[in-house]
Design goal:
Layout: H1 8-23, E1 27-29, E2 37-41, E3 49-53, E4 57-59, H2 60-80, E5 88-92, E6 95-98, E7 109-113, H3 124-129, H4 143-169, H5 175-193, H6 197-200, E8 202-203, H7 204-208, H8 214-217, H9 225-246, H10 248-269, E9 273-274, H11 278-294, H12 296-320, H13 326-343, H14 351-373
Parallel strand pairs: 3-5, 4-6, 5-7
Antiparallel strand pairs: 1-2, 2-3, 8-9
Helix pairs in contact: 1-4, 5-9, 9-10, 9-11, 10-11, 10-13, 10-14, 11-12, 11-13, 13-14
Length: 377
């Protein structure tokens, strides 16, 4: 097996792929019309894109053309992934001597000419962002044995990613959504025989006099059958998806925290009575946007073409049609985003991110309640 010879630059490419895919969590992305280069993507790293280019580039003119092409593709990836900033590391393993990298200085593209593993040490931006890269480029295996090992590790990593994606996106029975719909329907039926609105609806004066439970109970009441049907249909459509994505416990937490956030902003902006699940439902839409941002490689088109327009349209409706508690909608939307940040997105959120989510959610609710109780609303 070791008698089979693999070209030095091909072996270097395989080692780089092994490092970035198996150890740093980058995923290959398909770029149509591109040859002799591999694009890798990890939106959580300093360099969102890593390019490994084996194509021979002879002079500065060819390199300039390559740079222009890279910028165009980066712009497209930036739009596709809803990224505010796109940084790329381009590693060239077959660059001609007539190419002078000092002639090129790009803000969002770092360029490295790497002929051997030792060349990685020449670039501080590589060793700073990937301090362990050199330690993970040495293997006792040689030749075909090395090739088979690297290929196996990369395939194992890709299979693991596929299992995680299947775990997140496979549909599960939306039990919590069914329960929430049932509670809303039961409360509406009860209110048909016994008016619950004066007892349980959200109201600033009554909340400030100790009836805090109204901040939640009012979100399970509805003014009429049309109000109920509209909200329950929205809850079913959005809830069944989000419950499957987040898991039952996190989904329920996001729903209740969104409802609370909507009620808090409602009593700050209005002194009247408020009822309805729409604040919580807007929170679910905010949650879906936050979840979709983390999984934007899979959901970017859905988020941009369906979820965000749906949120904007419904907010605009609330501004122009009387009788709609627009502030509960806005508060719920904010609460849903912060609550999802706090409970975390599976396989994506860090502990630091979740702690920040809880801090921001508490700042939001406590500050507004402070304003309400001190008569500043």
């Amino acid at each position: 097996m070791n008698q089979i010879t693999i070209a030095e630059n091909e072996e270097l490419v395989m080692k780089l792929l092994h490092y970035f895919i198996s150890l740093k969590g980058y995923n290959p992305i398909i770029i149509h019309g591109v040859q002799n280069e591999i694009w890798l993507e990890n939106l959580q790293e300093d360099y969102k894109i890593v390019r490994i280019v084996s194509n021979y580039i002879h002079n500065n003119e060819q390199f300039k053309s390559d740079l222009f092409k890279t910028k165009v593709l980066m712009k497209n990836i930036k739009k596709r992934t809803l990224s505010f900033k796109m940084t790329t590391l381009s590693i060239f393993v077959n660059l001609g001597d007539n190419v002078h990298l000092e002639d090129f200085d790009e803000d969002n593209i770092a360029i490295a000419n790497v002929k051997t593993e030792d060349d990685l040490n020449k670039y501080q931006f590589i060793t700073t962002s990937f301090p362990d890269i050199n330690n993970n480029m040495n293997f006792k295996e040689k030749g075909l044995e090395l090739f088979l090992k690297l290929t196996k590790d990369i395939n194992d990593k890709n299979e693991g990613d596929a299992r995680m994606s299947e775990d997140v996106f496979s549909m599960k029975k939306p039990i919590i959504t069914y329960i929430l719909i049932a509670i809303n329907v039961i409360m509406f039926i009860i209110s048909m025989f016994y008016n619950l609105l004066p007892e349980l609806a959200v109201n600033r004066y009554l909340v400030t006099h100790g009836e805090f439970y109204r901040l939640i109970t009012g979100t399970f009441l509805h003014a009429n059958i049309v109000h109920l049907i509209f909200n329950m249909y929205a809850l079913y459509i959005i809830g069944m998806q989000l419950e499957s994505f987040l898991g039952k416990g996190k989904y329920l937490a996001v729903y209740l925290l969104s409802a609370l956030a909507g009620s808090v902003l409602s009593i700050f902006m209005s002194s009247g009575f408020s009822v309805g699940a729409s604040g919580a439902i807007f929170g679910l839409m905010g949650s879906l946007i936050y979840f979709g941002y983390h999984y934007r490689v899979y959901l970017d088109s859905v988020i941009k073409s369906q979820i965000i327009p749906l949120v904007i349209i419904n907010l605009l409706i609330g501004f122009f049609i009387s009788g709609i508690d627009i502030w509960a909608h806005i508060g719920g939307l904010i609460g849903g985003i912060l609550a999802t940040m706090a409970v975390g997105v599976k396989y994506k959120s860090t502990s630091f991110e979740k702690i920040n989510g809880w801090i921001l959610y508490l700042i939001y609710t406590v500050f507004i309640l402070y304003m309400v109780f001190n008569g500043l609303g």
